[in-house]
Structure formats: C-alpha cells, structure tokens
Amino acid sequence: MSERRKRLHEILLTLINKESDFELIEENSGDLTSNFSDKDTANLSRVIEKNRKIIKRYQDLVRTAVTLDALMDSENDQNFKIK
What we know:
The structure is a single chain. This protein is mostly helical. The protein has one domain (3-75). It has helices at residues 3-18, 29-32, 38-75. Helix 1 (3-18) packs across helix 3. The protein is elongated. 5% of the residues are buried.
C-alpha cells in the first residue's frame, strides 16, 4: 500500500471513530424477494433512502480525509506522517 493511501486510511479511520452515530448500510433482502405489495414497496423505499444517506455520509468522510491529507502535504514539505 502506498504511503499516501496508508495516511488516507488512517485519517478516515480517525474520522469514523469520532462519529457518534456511524451507521452501516442495511441489508434487507426479504423486501427484494417479495411480491412488492404497497407496504413492501414503502419499506423498500425507506431502506433505499436510508442507505443513500449513509453512502452520502461515507462520501463526506472520504472527501474530508482527502482534504485533510492535502492540507497536511501543503503544510509540510516532507509529508507529515501519522503514527
């Protein structure tokens, strides 16, 4: 793994650890195999919307990690290393 990738990984893990309400993507395969009644469709829609919001939060965390890494690079010519 490259040095930069390791650094980004460590920054991302630190950001995740700071999250008090970090959620994982929900798997609800029972809804995907049903006949899609109105109730099932509403439940599936809620699961999809919730997962979309979780993925957006993941993207926000990754963008933050990349930004912090770039700022550290710009502040230190010798590539600041997290220990």
